């Protein structure tokens, strides 16, 4: 009788252990599949709760779309896909990304149809738009720009998106590539005797036959990168608090003490320097007379993340050291 009871106890224990095994296995599988939830704190200080690392992500601005692709996450939706293809070449989008509308006015109906795990927006988007997006999916907002430290802000944005998508190692890799490009570029400029050169970076456009020039003054991303490379910005005007951008015209360049004038435009727009080809003021500028006006390759996004920043460094150093 005692032996029978012992076997019964062993059998009950075996059943109990078997039962525990069946409840643990799905939990382990869920953990392996990234089923555990996570919380990230965005640039607003808002804690955004996700079911797990986001896979189906929508980006409302080109810099966040660039960061997603850099991290190996192809967004299911992106703003102005055609424009992205023209202006951002560091990490191209594939052809399967749904266009959600313009960068300032995303289509809520289109985004709702994408069943997104996450929407990544920037502080450039109106607060009421962000509020409406939060009805569709969790929204992480990154700070679009910060003239007090553009490079650190760009790295912070990439790391925040990486945290939300579980791609932290990819972020570290991209940031490491940028830092290495700066170190190599600075050494190349020093070797070429260009350390301390006064390099003015700008873009511009033509409207109704009039040329507008936009200096990337102190606090802009390009000038911050140039400073890391050991170059000096000759722009004396003050830029805005977010992007470090100023405004001038060709007459405003007469006081610019620059060794080189470097700019970016796009084949989608008219090259503003062509409009100035016969302009007497432009032709009299010392850097123009010296042949030190350089157009960088199209598709280097001037407001991008570490991928575009690395692309800019390589293009600028190659151009200046030719």
From TrEMBL:
Predominant cellular place of this UniProt entry's protein: other
Signal sequence coordinates: 1-23
Keyword line: Signal, Transport
Subcellular location per the Swiss-Prot or TrEMBL entry: Cell envelope
PROSITE patterns named among the record's database cross-references: FE_B12_PBP, PROKAR_LIPOPROTEIN
One Pfam family named in its UniProt record: Peripla_BP_2
Keyword Transmembrane helix: no
UniProt superkingdom: Bacteria
Gene3D superfamilies listed in its UniProt record: Nitrogenase molybdenum iron protein domain (3.40.50.1980)
Presence of keyword Oxidoreductase: no
Record domain Fe/B12 periplasmic-binding: where: 56-322
Family: Belongs to the bacterial solute-binding protein 8 family.
Protein name, entry field: ABC transporter substrate-binding protein
Organism: Arthrobacter mangrovi
